[in-house]
Amino acid sequence: MSRRIFYSIFIVSSVVMILVMAMGLWGMYSHFTEEQFEQLRNETQLVRQGLTMSGSEFFDNLRTTNFRITWITRDGRILYDSDADSQQMANHLEREEIREALETGYGESQRFSSTLSAKQLYTAQLMDDGTVIRLSVTQSSISQLSRRLLLPVLSTLAVLFFLSLILAGSLSSKILKPINALDPDNPFADPELMAYPEIRPLLQKLEDQHQQIRKDHEELERSSLIRQEFTANASHELKTPLHVISGYAELIESGMARPEDIPGFAAKISSEAHRMTKLVEDTIGLSALDGGGDDMKRVPADLYSIAQNAADALQTEADMKGITLDVAGEPAVLSGVPEVLHGIVYNLCENAIKYSPENSRVSVLVRNMPDQVSLTVSDEGIGIAQEDISRIFERFYRVDKSHSKEVGGTGLGLSIVKHAARLHNAEIRVNSTPGKGSEFIILFPKDGSSPE
Ligand code: ADP
């Protein structure tokens, strides 16, 4: 870039200098021509006076001058010529300056003389006796002029080229200075740069991009940390049931287990295997939602019938604890992903049953509002302390780990609910009183759009 700017300035300044030089030469040439004409005019008047006073004798005493003198009759014949044989010369009546002199008394012209192979300046003066006296001189040509001026012109050009080299060098480094001084990592670090309004948008753009990169980087670090934590937690969660399973299996295999213990051991193995399956299923469900669910198809879905289906699927669990599980409300259609909506109701109801005492009640209510659909799952269970409410949606967070395990929890249920709600731009509210019960309310926008 620096090289390009340098050459551009150098070429432009050189062209300008050459043009100025050429114009100067042309000016000088015009000036010299005018000077020559002026001399010719003066000389013509002198010759006129001499001829008037002395007649043709004037030419006898005439010493050669720089000028050629020709004396012509009214009808164009040559009476005298200082440089050529007048007898040999053609009639001059048609010459421009002669015609003009005969018409107006005085004439001038300049033209190329093939006899002398040079440009000639002519003046012609009508005499009182009707003859015409003409003076001419060879005009200095541009090339003559240039030849005479060659040395000064060349030396001036050399100096000017040298100057334009220095100028181009200093200008290009001056132009590039702010760009070179720019620190792309910290665009606003140099206050001097702010003095250039042309650079400010670039600085702003750089700064914006930096901020975006920083944000993306932080986001990436955060999600990589979450993933790491998740992997560590998931492996840990899987390891525990595996240890239990392999422990009981080894006891049976080694023959150390008594026959009457085997049904109990088998039940333990089955329940731990069931827990592992649930954990794997929840992990798969969560990772599908983690992707943002862009590939999931949204359709008009009736949350009321979805809630009824989910409650039906959990009826056995509720019955086992003597819990009354009822679904109330009205049909309420919203734009959503039916299986994901089912997952929300199922997880909330499953938790309500898990964390409620026997013979209590779990209620599901679906309400159809103008722009929203609400889902409320309430129970008369153990409740959640205020300080835990903000954390229960974290992966693997459990208020009481051993209780959660006892009731078959994976620690991922509410995480799935949170992601599933986010996919529908839904809002989650939790009201809970320890020892009294909990209420989970999810507010879905009907069209699935995000609130402004
Ligand atoms: P888990 O599989 O352990 O139930 P969740 O993510 O579904 O995991 O829930 C996280 C924790 O929140 C649970 O371990 C439990 O302590 C608490 N929790 C969730 N739902 C309820 C509820 N209805 N009543 C009381 N505590 C609950």
Structural class: alpha+beta
Low-confidence segments, given as residue ranges, are none
Q: What is the rounded distance between the termini? A: 48 Å
Q: How many discrete structural domains? A: 3
| Total beta strand runs | 12
CATH topology of the largest domain: Heat Shock Protein 90
Rg over alpha carbons: 55 Å
Oligomer: single chain
Categorize the overall geometry.
rod-shaped
Helix tally equals 12
The largest sheet is: 5 strands, antiparallel
Average pLDDT: 88
Structure in words:
The chain is an alpha+beta fold. The chain has 12 helices and 12 strands. It folds into 3 domains: 2-147, PAS domain (Beta-Lactamase, 2-Layer Sandwich), CATH 3.30.450.20; 184-290, Helix Hairpins (Orthogonal Bundle), CATH 1.10.287; 297-452, Heat Shock Protein 90 (2-Layer Sandwich), CATH 3.30.565.10. Strands 2-1-5-4-3 form a 5-stranded antiparallel β-sheet. The chain has a 5-stranded mixed β-sheet with strand order 7-9-10-12-11. A two-stranded antiparallel sheet has the order 6-8. A hairpin with a 4-residue loop joins strand 3 and strand 4 (118-126). Helix 7 (303-313) crosses helix 9. The longest helix is centred in the middle third of the chain and has 55 residues, at 200-254. The protein is rod-shaped. Adenosine-5'-diphosphate is lined by residues 351-352, 355, 379, 381-384, 392, 397-400, 404, 409-415, 438.
